[in-house]
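Troubleshooting entry. Yesterday's outputs looked truncated, so today I'm pasting the complete records for two proteins to confirm everything comes through intact. If either block looks cut off, that's the bug. Protein one:
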Amino acid sequence: MDNKVKTGNKQEISLLIREYRQYLMLEKSLSENTLEAYMADLEKLLSYLSVADIYVLDVTLEELQSFSAGLHDLGVCPRSQARILSGVRSFYRFLSLYDYLETDPTELLESPKQGFKLPEVLTVQEIDRMIASIDLNKKEGQRNKAIFEILYSCGLRVSELISLKLNDLFLEEGFIRVEGKGSKQRLVPVSEKGIKEIRYYIPDRNQIETKKGFEDILFLSRRGTGLSRIMIFHMIKEAAREAGIQKNISPHTFRHSFATHLLEGGANLRAIQAMLGHESVATTEIYTHIDRNLLRSEIIEHHPRNIKYRNKGSYKV
C-alpha cells in the first residue's frame, strides 16, 4: 500500500475502498457476509461526506459526530447506529495502520447508549414440540429433524450448519468439526439424539442426485444443492407455527437456547464459549441471565459458608 492518496478525487477514494476490502478479506479473514456489512456501513459514511463535500482523509471528530447525529435523526435505532459506527472505526483504524492518517479521528467517537435486549429463548418443551411437529412422511422430514437436533445439540450458527460436510462428521467419537467465523475450526460434541437423527437422515440423503460442487455437503435440498439461510429460517418459522409457539424466533434462537440451557444446567462459561466459537468470553456472558432464584439456590447449595452451616443443621434451604 505504498501508493498513498494525496487528494480527494473519486479514483483515489476507490483505491482506498479497494485496499480496505482486501485488508478485511485477507488480513482480518472476515466472512463474505460480515465483509459486505462493513462495506455497507462505510458506504453510508461516504455518502454523507460526499453531500457535505468533506474528503474522507480530512474528516474531523466533530464531523463524525454530526454523521452519528444524522443517523439518529433518520430514525436509525441505537443498536444499528452502534454497528454502523463500529464499521466506521474499523475503516479509520485501517487508514491509521497503513499511514494514510497520522491520527485516528474516531478514537473519541462514542456510540449511542442502547438498552440491553436479551435474546429470545425457547424452553426444552417448546423445542420438543417443534421437533415433534415435523412430518416424517415428507421426503425432507428426517432431514429437518436432524437439522433441528444439530442446531440445538451443538449451538451452531446457521452459516455453520449449512456448510457442514460429510467429512466433518466424527459420529463414532461423538463430535462434528465446525468452521466458524474467520475460517476458524473447532470440534463440537454432539448429543446421542443428534447422532441418531443424522444416521437416520444419511440413507435419505444418499438417494438425492447431488449437483456438482455439493457432493460432500451434509444437508441437501431436493434439487441436490446446499440449503440457504432463508430456507432454514422458513423451516423454523413453519415448525414454530405448527407447534403453536408465539415467540419471534429464528435459527439463532436455537443457539441462544443451547447456551442458556447449558449455563442453567451448570456448565462452565469457558466451556460454553469454546462450544459457541466465541473469540471473547465477554460475548458469552450474555447468557448469564439465568433466573435469580436458580442463582440463589446455586449459591446456597455450593458456597462453603452455607455448606458448613447446613452440615451443622443450623441452616435450612
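Protein two, checking that the full record survives here as well:
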Amino acid sequence: MKFVISSSELLRGILAVSKAIPAKSALPILENFLFVLKGETLEITASDTELTLKTEVEVESTAEEGKIAVPANHLTNLLKELPDQPLTIKTLNDTSFECSWATGTSTLPYFPAVDYPDILSTGSDAISIDFPAQSLAEGISGTIYATADDEIRPVMNGILFDIDTEYTTLVATDSHKLICYTTKDVKSPEKASFILHKRPAGVLRSILGKNTETVQVTFDSKAVIFKFDSTTMVCLLVVGKYPKYRDVIPQNNSNILRIDRVQLLNTVRRVSVCANKASNHIKFDLKNGSIEVSAQDLGFSIAAYEKISCQYDGEELTIGFKSSFLIEILNNMTCNSLVIKFADSRHAALIVPAEDEAESEKICGIIMPIMIA
C-alpha cells in the first residue's frame, strides 16, 4: 500500500469513525482502524463488533492499493500534532508502515486486514426507508434521556423506532417517564419496528452533519444500517418485545395546566433544593389561576415553596412527582409554553408543547406521580 493524502482530511476521516473504537477489547485487532485503499478512495472502518462506523476519504494519489489495520491511538495522536500538509503512507514490510511529511517520518506497526472481524450486515428481507436527518437528530435528542439502565429488561435501554404507514414514532421509557416523538415525514408501505440501543443512538446523533439532508435506514431483525454523506453506521439491534406504550398514554385527562416551560422549570429547580435527597419528591397544588410548588425534608427541617400564576382549568388538585424526572422532561423540551394534562393524583400526567397541542402532538412526555403525605 502506498498513497498520498491531506493530513487534515485523514484526521477528519478517522475522527468520524473513532467513536466505535472500544476503550478495552478482548480482541486487540479492534483497537485499530481498518484501511482499505481502492483507486483514489480510502475507506476507514472502526468497530467493536456491535457498532461499526465506516467513512470514505479521497486521496491525492495512489501508487499501490491494499488493506491494513493501523493502530488507532497512535495514528490519531500523530495527526493531531501535524499541520495540514500532504502525508505519504506506505507499507515497509509485513509488519510496519511509514508516515512521511515535509519535515519528518514516523514508523508504526500494522496488522493484516484478514485478522479484522467481518462487518455486520442486513439480510435479503431488510426494510429500507429514508429519514430526514433533522427529524432523526431531533427524535433521538428528544427521547434518549428517557432510556433506562436495566439489565433485566434490555429493551428499556434503547429507543423504539415504531414505523407505520402514515408516520414514525420514536419512543423511550424507563417505566417512570415515557417520551414519544412523532414525525409524518417518515413512513413505510408496511408496519415495522426496531429497537436501537442508546449508545449507538447517541453516536449517531453526534456524527450527523448539519448539512446532511437524508439518512437511508436499512434494517432487519438483527441489525440496522444508517447511510448518509460518506458515512455508514452498522449496529446490532436490541432483541425483545417493547412494552405497549400506546396503552399508557392518557387520553382523557381533563384537568389542564398551561404554563411557561422555563418558568416552571426554574421554579422546580429552586424548590427541589429543599427536597429529600433520597426521594427528590416535590408537590404541586393546583388551583384556578395558580400553582404552588413545594418540597420539604423533615430530617433536616428544611422546606421551600413557590407560587406562580398560570392558566389552570379543572378541579383543585394536589399531586406529587420526583423532581429529577420532571426536570429532565422540562429541560429537554424546546417549546416556550407547555400544556400538562392531569386526571387525578394517582394517574400519569401528559406533557405536550402548547404549540403542537392542536397538531398531532409531535413530542409528548408522560410522568408517573408519586404518593405524598
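Both blocks look complete. Sanity check on protein two: The chain has six helices and 27 strands.
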